[in-house]
Specification:
There is one protein chain. This protein is of the alpha/beta class. The protein has 2 domains: 138 residues, Aspartate Aminotransferase, domain 1 (Alpha-Beta Complex), CATH 3.90.1150.10; 260 residues, Type I PLP-dependent aspartate aminotransferase-like (Major domain) (Aspartate Aminotransferase, domain 2, 3-Layer(aba) Sandwich). It has 14 helices and 16 strands. Helix 8 packs parallel to helix 9 and helix 12 packs parallel to helix 14. The radius of gyration is 21 Å and the shape is globular.
Length: 419
Amino acid sequence: MSTRLSPLLTQATGVTAVRGEGVYLYDADGRRYLDFTSGIGVTNTGHCHPAVVEAAQRQAGELIHGQYTTVLHPALLELTERLGDVLPAELDSLFFTSAGTEAVEAATRLAKQTTGRTNLIVFQGSFHGRTTAALSMTTSKAAYRAGLQPLMAGVFVAPFPYAYRYGWDEETTTAFTLRELDYLFATQSAPRETAAIFVEPVLGEGGYVPATPGFLEGLRERCDRHGILLVIDEVQSGFGRTGRFWGHEHYDVRPDVLVTAKGLASGFPLSAIAASTELMERAWAGSQGGTYGGNAVACAAAVATLDVIQKEGLVENADTLGAHLMTALGGLQQRYPVIGDVRGKGLMVATEFSTGGEPDSSRAKQVQKAVEQRGLLMLTCGPLGNVIRWIPPLIVTSEQIDHALGLFEEALAETAKET
């Protein structure tokens, strides 16, 4: 009997990668692909960075699995201490899990137990994971929830300040979204019943839409006024991706709980939530745990990841090259009106495709396939699949950005002839 992968695992590209190095992936025939997917924002330090590889190999020879509710291990303790250098000072307590969705579930438990409240508020277009509680909070695509509803009760959805979709300026959009949030408080989830507001500083799967400053500041003010926890989901926007170490650092806002994963360990499965010790101590004993959380090899890789980000100036590189990328894409937008919007922070950038004012998911997919044929791997996102996202490893150079832009323009020109 032969076995195979589930047919439900749809592949974004036709590539089988046998090796990765830096910003490149290689197939079995030796063909090189410029990888502007980064494993969906995971390999911020590039593929197989020598420092990460060495740390993981060394740790694998010493201790692979030290189950951290049974024994502690040095890699876990070192990572815990090192994260204190980059986290907001008040978030001085950490709980580690294996995946972003697990961390969101842990943040949900923490919020409900410490506030004694039942309800959660999320935003239209959000992605928080695929396990039951996290999926109940995910609204970026109906397919994720299909056939599983009803999901967890007590989750309420408010609009996100997606100015391009609404056709308004940022100020108008921000005012609208905050009014609607207040209306939600008045009609669906009273503040005294609301444990937490979960928000991505930049929508990920929902279309790479940055929050507006006034929106996040408005959330912080309402949370303070009503005793609601502000949980900032940095799973995709953290670890330098946006040109700041954390995406929320673009705004004058501090979280009560921060969720991180993806770029944390350069491809090893590791995630975490951070909160104040005072908040963590108010949760119920035994509510945090898990078999693989804080895995020794993953923790060693995460420590090496922090070293690489800091020593090689990857946050600054994301900021500088992100600005270069945005400027260049703005120029392409002028020449190719099918690019309706260019937006983003750092190296978390979106090109949204529209024709005649309507989303053009067909053209976005054509361009994505056309660049693959030219050796550039990219991903689409957004509820309608009409957004191509730019998420290269943070080690990318300006020359590699420009090469990708050239391939992207070739694909735009080619697909324009087909339509």
